[in-house]
Amino acid sequence: MFRTHNCGELKITDINKKVTLSGWINIIRNKGSIIWIDLRDRYGITQLVLEEKTTDSSIFKKAKTLGREDVIKVKGTVSKRTSKNEKISTGEIEIVITELEILNSSKIPPFTIENDTDGGEELRMKYRYLDIRRPQIRENLILRHQVVSILREYLNKKDFIEIETPSLIKSTPEGARDFLVPSRMNPGKFYALPQSPQTLKQLLMIGGMDKYYQLVKCFRDEDLRADRAPEFTQIDCEMSFIEQQDIFNTFEPAIQQVFNVIKGVTLPKFPVYTYDEVMSKYGTDKPDLRFDMQIIDITEKVQKCNFKVFDNSEYIGAICVKNSASFTRKQIDIYTDFIKNPNLKGKGLVYIKYNEDDSIRSSIDKFILPEQFKNWFIDLEAKKGDLVFVIADKKQKAQKILGELRLKLASDLNLKDKNKFAPLWVIDFPLLEWNEEHQRFFASHHPFTSPKDEDIVKMTTDPANVKAKAYDLVMNGFEIAGGSLRIHKKDIQEKMFKIIGMDLKQAYDEFGFLINALGYGAPPHGGIAIGLARLCAILGGSEAIRDFIAFPKNNSGKDIMIDAPSLISSEQLKELNL
Amino acid sequence: MFRTHNCGELKITDINKKVTLSGWINIIRNKGSIIWIDLRDRYGITQLVLEEKTTDSSIFKKAKTLGREDVIKVKGTVSKRTSKNEKISTGEIEIVITELEILNSSKIPPFTIENDTDGGEELRMKYRYLDIRRPQIRENLILRHQVVSILREYLNKKDFIEIETPSLIKSTPEGARDFLVPSRMNPGKFYALPQSPQTLKQLLMIGGMDKYYQLVKCFRDEDLRADRAPEFTQIDCEMSFIEQQDIFNTFEPAIQQVFNVIKGVTLPKFPVYTYDEVMSKYGTDKPDLRFDMQIIDITEKVQKCNFKVFDNSEYIGAICVKNSASFTRKQIDIYTDFIKNPNLKGKGLVYIKYNEDDSIRSSIDKFILPEQFKNWFIDLEAKKGDLVFVIADKKQKAQKILGELRLKLASDLNLKDKNKFAPLWVIDFPLLEWNEEHQRFFASHHPFTSPKDEDIVKMTTDPANVKAKAYDLVMNGFEIAGGSLRIHKKDIQEKMFKIIGMDLKQAYDEFGFLINALGYGAPPHGGIAIGLARLCAILGGSEAIRDFIAFPKNNSGKDIMIDAPSLISSEQLKELNL
Prior knowledge:
The structure is a homodimer of 578-residue chains.
Chain A: E1 18-30, E2 34-41, E3 44-51, H1 57-64, E4 71-80, E5 93-104, H2 121-126, H3 128-131, H4 135-157, E6 161-162, E7 180-182, E8 190-192, H5 198-206, E9 211-219, E10 231-240, H6 244-263, E11 272-274, H7 275-282, E12 296-297, H8 299-302, H9 308-311, E13 315-321, H10 329-339, E14 350-354, E15 360-362, H11 370-380, E16 387-393, H12 395-412, E17 423-427, E18 432-435, E19 440-443, H13 458-461, E20 470-475, E21 478-485, H14 490-499, H15 504-518, E22 525-531, H16 532-539, H17 570-575
Helix pairs in contact in A: 4-6, 4-16, 7-12, 14-15
């Protein structure tokens, strides 16, 4: 037997017990006549002690040869520690060693196994198994397990059935790029890995399964950014005979429960915003509501104030930065450069400082009188000491710039409190998006999303203004879940495909299995998918989802630890007819 | 709101409640002045009633247009039923309808939505979403969910952490054929889909995660048989600081709990057999212990009895078929043909009938005296009325034939009781298997399996006789789980690769990440993987694992519902450099 206890559980009440422990040497302190070892496992750290005058000499000698990360098994007696360590759960005791077995030795690790490690990211990824020994990564993986456990238990209690859908499915256009898998048994043909089990879960609803969920691996062959992974896990759910509010009533408490159990936080009822509302107030469909700094439309107020640039603009919007009138010229230049960056292409940034002494300094104070500024301040709720930034441009572009500026300011001013959680539902997304390159509409969400009932008539007459029964759950500036009610009528589904440029033949070639299924008694249904790593990252107070994935890939889609993807043998290629 | 209750929950205590229900029309009986509808959902069936003289005429008229599988929403009052239906949970009540809304209509389904359906397998697979509406398939999927829930809960309580390993990994030789995924971002390189997360879970142990599990999709590109699927799910587990008995102590109660909760059965302690023992007694490493009929080695007893065929055979084995002396010549011929089939290549089958009147009839009674037969019967425990079959051949071949014959007889004699469960552990598998074609040893299990300590010395001197720390959990003739303790010492792992014909360079090219990891303090570890669909099939009393998979593929690896695999566009191929 390798252990009677783990390294995190022995307490003062265990004094004098004979115990066996196994684990890794975290630290070894050799003081000549006495050796202390911090023995580590997943559960904690226990101090071992060997004294030259009382320990068997062969054991003491063996202990002297030990090094960091060696794996040992020891027997000994639990004793009271003279100097307590209150930082660890076993800090009141130590083990006086009577037997020592070296189970395996370790080379010196390429970086220190501590939260504050000296290893760079590339090195830690190559030795990810050592990185996982660091308490932070270990706790992240355990957090993920806990999140999953809470959600599963919740869904099980609500009569959801976990059903696995296949991973080798059919490649379909629309959406992101598929990962493909050549079929050896069907030469020239390919499977695709699922981008999501969307159509399959709809078929389960048509099959009468009523409430489904699955923790499912999804795959997208997209160029990677820091927060994207080629494979990712979603908690995928679907329900029949429901309306949007039923989804909220089911999943809002689920998320609340996760935060309550993991963080001890009671989240309030999630506010509901329309897409139009968040776009105008925050310039994004994923607003971070941990701080205010709303975008205010001041177009009407500031036009005809004798400033041509404003008079000639479609839209003028502003944000009020609290207590920031003291920004230096240099600081303001940073934000001007920021809004001019190639992603945003802002033309210029107007600032207005409302100083504590009631004076006003602005980049446009040659054109605008103090009384006029003060009139604007009413709408902006700007007080003495505040700073106002103004953007004049096309409406959508200006809102986007102000939204990004708002986020940058919040970062710089430390308004993004890791321990604050600001959830909201965003609803009424547009059903369709016009694509200039392809000169056609694309589905904003996916082509199975239902239009709002009252907008069905507009599908042919005014597609750009059709709203969808789609919703996102947003928290701290990230989408943590998204979903929609689906089209359950065959004729509407056919119409939808037509609007996004598919003729009936193509639609049936690609999605015939689903369109046909809608003809056999499809119930009204809808669902949601929760991005697991993102939810964990928010709970863990991190923006890096990779820290919550056991074996993540890098930005080139490579696993540098196992060296994947890799070259393969010509025999393998031949078998696959490649 | 679509429903206040589901179709399985209303009881006599709900009388007079106003309720709203939604579901599918299972059966509609139109008796002219009265219409009964059986409304169905996942939870059950509720009877609806409409009477011409009391129901609003527009509703009654609408009801007359309804057909099977239409989806409706109704409001009405719960009433006591005049003639109870004790087969269903709602059999004491019916709903008197006051409102009726048709949510969606259905074409006439291509087969009846009943357990005893008129649809053939191909048709049901094409319309799998309709097949899932059949109670049997629905119950199978719910059973699978329950099994998973029980096992997860069990493992969570035992401090196991669920950790997801990647699905896009590296292709490695050894084992079955990989499914490959071309990498667009790394031209010419490929990912492989995991055949199992074997090496990754070992890295998690080296990473100190201690106890891991995962319900994980695995992929093998093999030619398919009825009980094989290209993708399948295993409950994959690994533990550190354990011995074989710790695995048994952890997973035996897990399986017992599943059978207890799902079947109400208390499984006894699982007997442990060595590989050598089951091979000699049952001719297979997956013995079905629901019935006896052991293979008895009668070589010593029957040689030198004046029958040349026996005297010249390496081995003579027999099975005693209880109460079957009355088999006709024709029946016996069937078994003779069976053992001569191309898979078994038996040379001949000797029968000995020990008749009720104490007489003996045998295919070799010209050579053997009744007294001699009776002497053999002692070892075979053959009584009057029994039939004995004898095979003389090379030992392994004879045992295999007798094992297969035993199974066929059990099927024909209805000895395979669906409601009986006979688990056992099989241990001490050979570490290596000689492959004639490649003229080298292959790992019997996989090359990470540890040899038994006492056999390490034989790895170079006598590899064929090295036993492994490998174990299978077998039930009713199927392997439901398999695992091993792993090699955790770097030098042993290098030796193992050498024995299976890999030089050090090749071993490091393919598995360097793991071999290196063993050098950084790998703990003793081992694990097990449970075949989920197989376990469910046994619990469900079926031999067809496909019935426990939501969307199974056929024997050509095709999903005929969604039409996968399929041809893909030349642009897609070009992007992938294929």
